[in-house]
Design brief:
The complex is a heterotrimer of chains A (about 300), B (about 260) and C (about 325). By secondary structure, chain A is α/β, with parallel strands linked by helices. Chain A contains eleven helices and 14 strands. Chain A has a six-stranded mixed beta sheet, with helices on both faces. In chain A, strands 2-1-4-5 form a four-stranded antiparallel beta sheet, covered by helices on one side. A four-stranded antiparallel beta sheet of chain A has the order 12-13-11-14. The longest helix of chain A has 16 residues. A two-stranded antiparallel sheet of chain C has the order 1-2. Classes of the chains: A alpha/beta (about 300), B mainly alpha (about 260), C mainly alpha (about 325).
């Protein structure tokens, strides 16, 4: 069974004073997400990612089409008990503490009182907020709010998670933690649908991705499918600035970071470069194959005119 | 269902109570009540009258300000700050949210009024040194003020379900002013004819009828309040608040949250 | 989705129910509280306090109190009330809030002075009230008219009335009638025609409905007085000519003394009573008449003790 399925889901806004102009926020979208997979929903800002999520959460109403979640119509009240939602840059009730907030949400989700007592501290620990105790939410940093947001999304043990930019506002450590959390959740059998414009996160986590641009779906598939290895390239890292000029002369870009030099070049030039380095008595540190990146695919798809199917 | 509504109500109450602005307003109101004791020293007989008039007027006006102030935040602020999203993504019906909000704010106002009333009665005790039978009607006056709050809150909720915080506050305030003169509006409507009459009569029955809820002047003169008036005012306040809350639910049900 | 539609239906029904209910409730409350807001006028120590409480919106508050005053009077008048306690305070507040609301003084000049149930029955207070209006609005010639009116009609002080009309006639823009009235006061104060002109002027120049209605009733009553005098004279002449009183109007019509059945201003025929008297069918229709009343019914206490004697007649067919 598909965990999430959209069927021609679309949203058009009428704008302007007389409501005459149309803005197509989302073109008819047909998407399917398998149970238990981590699905990345990618696109630049303003692509329609948040619109899609809000439609699925039934916060806004579609101008066409529909969706199914866990086999039920997405508007079915029973669906809500089984999903968790983390909105983009969330705020919460300023004057509550984190445990109070989670307790409130847990009540609304129908978690019984005894369970709540157990789960809330566990949740807070899980998102790395075990010692916020009595601090009111208005004193939380962005990163802390993001973690609370995650906690409220998972505390009622939903089967499907919808996360809108879950890494936003987090420092590298925080992002790592969230990544790990998402992987853990997958292991628990949950389906995770998250939107992001940071490709690196998607590459690290997702089984499959979809790319959205200006409301239109531009590509769907696994990373391996979408970004096949193009012409094989390698990354060479060495020490010794003297060789840089020679490598540049072969048409490769050289980046210096202190003593370390690195260049990415086509595989066939590898031998030439290594020879050059040896002549210059440079110290070779590593040679790594580089697969075609998602970024390339992304930019390519964005560049295409509208209406071109993936 | 009731559990969720109760949750939302309690949360609304808690949020309102922890908002320190509320305390400032209540404090200010108490200050005004206390100062009434000073104003009254013009002549001996008039002290009680001035205290009751000024004191209850302060309770009423500050309560309305609080009602509007928090009321507009009920929905508008939640949407602006997106706290609403995480609530509605749960198995909570939109109408449960509205009703819970209304109950929460009503509860807040009752508690506020209680504190202001305590301050008022303390001032009265200081003045009179004891309570007498007609003072019971002061409680009725305060009860009517609370009914007034229900109406204003419901209206604030209704307006904030579709407009911005600022506009909602303006509308609610206007409704309060017009509602004070609702009886005159009906009188005016009776004197006109034709289209004007239809429009004026329609408007006169749509605006809140706040005049009967203001018995401050008569209790200041220790006049009794009829039991039938208490009954009908209660019925009216509940019905009118019902209109506004239902309106809010209907608007909210079809609203796109951008 | 059916659940959303169900909610919409339920709450729409609830809304309509509550809407209807609250409208009914409002009506109930209005009846319960009849005049309660007005009663509070008695608690107000002075109109100046109302002025201060208006926070500068004195014009609007004046309009509101004016509306209340008119409503109050209309409501009381409708049930033929004998007392109008709140009329003066209401008008007092109205004119304190807006001293230039001339119509309020005009209204007061008639309805404070006339005897109950046609007014509050306090001509002295009315005169003082209008004098105040004149002080604030020396160019409002209509107020001099109102003042003269009170002196003439209720206080029978024809000299004071003349002075008032005289002063008024000197205001630039005054209706030329003012001079005529001043002159009439001097010579023909007691005549019915003077009263007729007085009320015609009010009827023609008033915009307030109640004042016009009142003037109309006055004019009707004057016409009835005239008709009765005229008809009684005809009856006497018939008696003199034929030696016996007419048995009915038809006899007189047949004899050519009358063109047709004589009707009062409401369209009901006058009664021919024994002794050559003419009476109106329903004295209640004409609260201000002094002639044509059935025996035992005194002229309404509204009217001053000295009612104007029969004067030059106004033919029955003339419309006011």
């Amino acid at each position: 069974m598909l965990a999430i399925e959209t069927l021609q889901l679309e949203k058009t806004y009428t704008v302007g004073f007389w409501r005459k102009k149309e803005r197509r926020a989302l073109m008819p979208l047909n998407l399917g997400v398998e149970e238990g997979e981590i699905f990345g929903y990618l696109g630049p800002n303003g692509a329609g990612k948040t619109t899609t999520l809000k439609l699925l959460m039934h916060l806004i109403f579609p101008t066409g089409g529909g969706a199914r979640i866990l086999g039920l119509d997405y508007r079915d009240p029973r669906v809500k008990a089984q999903i968790g939602f983390l909105p983009e840059q969330p705020y919460f009730y300023d004057h509550l503490t984190a445990p109070e907030l989670l307790d409130y949400y847990a009540q609304l989700s129908g978690v019984p009182a005894g369970e709540r007592h157990r789960r809330i501290p566990a949740m807070l620990e899980r998102v790395g907020l075990s010692d916020v105790g009595r601090l009111q939410l208005r004193k939380f940093s962005k990163g802390m709010l993001q973690r609370v947001g995650l906690a409220q999304a998972i505390l009622h043990n939903p089967k499907v998670l919808f996360l809108d930019e879950p890494m936003s506002g987090l420092d590298p450590i925080g992002r790592r933690e969230v990544r790990d959390l998402i992987l853990q959740l997958k292991e628990e059998g949950k389906t995770i649908f998250f939107s992001t414009h940071i490709l690196a996160d998607a590459e690290a986590l997702c089984d499959r991705v979809a790319i959205l641009h200006k409301g239109e779906l531009r590509g769907v598939g696994s990373i391996a499918q979408l970004a096949p290895a193009g012409p094989a390239r390698v990354e060479v890292v060495w020490q010794g600035g003297a060789a840089a000029a020679a490598v540049r002369g072969m048409g490769a870009e050289v980046h210096a970071a202190g003593e370390e030099m690195r260049a990415v070049l086509p595989e066939e030039k590898l031998d030439l470069v290594i020879d050059a380095l040896r002549r210059q008595h440079a110290r070779l540190l590593s040679v790594t194959p580089v697969r075609g990146s998602l970024e390339d695919y992304f930019i390519e798809k964005l560049g295409q005119p509208q209406g071109v199917s993936p | 269902m009731t559990a969720r509504i109760a949750s939302i109500a309690y949360n609304t109450f808690r949020e309102a109570v922890r908002d320190r602005v509320l305390y400032n307003l209540v404090f200010f109101a108490l200050l005004l009540v206390g100062s009434a004791l000073l104003f009254g020293q013009i002549s001996i007989d008039i002290e009680r009258i001035v205290l009751v008039n000024l004191g209850l007027a302060a309770v009423s006006i500050f309560g309305v300000v609080i009602a509007i102030f928090i009321g507009i935040g009920l929905v508008s602020k939640e949407i602006e700050k997106r706290t609403l999203y995480t609530v509605l993504s749960r198995p909570v019906a939109r109408w449960e949210f509205i009703v819970g909000k209304f109950l929460g704010l009503s509860g807040t106002l009752i508690v506020n009024t209680f504190f202001m009333a305590v301050g008022f009665f303390l001032a009265l005790l200081y003045l009179q040194h004891h309570f007498s039978a007609p003072d019971a009607y002061l409680l009725v006056a305060i009860y009517f003020i609370i009914l007034e709050f229900f109406i204003i809150t419901a209206l604030a909720l209704f307006f904030s379900s579709f407009s911005s915080p600022l506009l909602s506050a303006v509308f609610a305030f206007c409704a309060f002013i017009i509602g004070t003169f609702a009886e005159d509006l009906r009188g005016f409507a009776a004197m006109t004819s034709g289209v004007t009459r239809w429009l004026a009569t329609g408007a006169a029955y749509l605006v809140p009828n706040l005049a009967p809820l203001n018995v401050i002047a008569s209790v200041a003169h220790q006049q009794p309040v009829a039991g039938t008036l208490i009954f009908h005012n209660t019925v009216y306040a509940l019905l009118y608040a019902g209109v506004a809350v239902c309106g809010a639910v209907l608007v909210f049900e079809r609203r796109n949250f951008k | 989705m059916s659940s959303s539609r169900r909610i919409t239906t339920v709450f729409s029904a609830l809304l309509l129910l509550c809407l209807a209910g609250q409208a009914l409730s409002v009506r109930r409350l209005d009846r319960l509280r009849e005049g309660a807001t007005l009663q509070e006028v008695l608690w107000i120590p002075s109109p100046k306090i109302v002025k201060r409480l208006s926070l500068g919106y004195t014009g609007l508050m004046a309009d509101i109190y004016w509306t209340r005053a008119v409503q109050y009077f209309g409501g009381k008048h409708h049930v033929q009330s004998q007392e109008y306690k709140l009329l003066e305070p209401l008008l007092d507040i109205t004119t304190t809030l807006d001293p230039h609301l001339v119509v309020a003084y005009q209204f007061g000049s008639i309805f404070i002075s006339q005897r109950p149930p046609q007014g509050a029955g306090d001509p002295d207070a009315a005169a003082a009230f209008v004098e105040r209006g004149i002080r604030e609005n020396p160019d409002a010639w209509r107020l001099y008219y109102g003042l003269g009116f009170i002196h003439y009609l209720e206080r029978h002080d024809y000299k004071a009335a003349q002075e008032a009309f005289q002063r008024g006639s000197q205001v630039p823009g005054a209706h030329p009638f003012m001079k005529v009235l001043a002159a009439s006061m001097a010579q023909r104060a007691g005549e019915r025609e003077t009263a007729f002109y007085l009320w015609t002027m009010i009827y023609d120049t008033s915009t307030d409905r109640m004042m016009r209605d009142n003037a109309l009733r006055r004019l009707e009553s004057l016409r009835v007085d005239d008709d009765v005098d005229h008809l009684e004279a005809l009856v006497r002449r018939f008696q003199a000519q034929t030696g016996h009183p007419p048995a009915s109007w038809f006899e007189m019509i047949a004899a050519g003394e009358l063109p047709g059945l004589p009707l009062d201003p409401r369209g009901k025929p006058y009664k021919l009573a024994p002794g050559g008297r003419v009476e109106v069918q329903s004295p209640g229709d004409f609260p201000f008449i002094t002639r044509g009343l059935p025996p035992g019914v005194a002229p309404s206490p509204l009217l001053a003790p000295e009612a104007p004697p029969p004067g030059r007649g106004v033919p029955a067919g003339r419309k006011p």
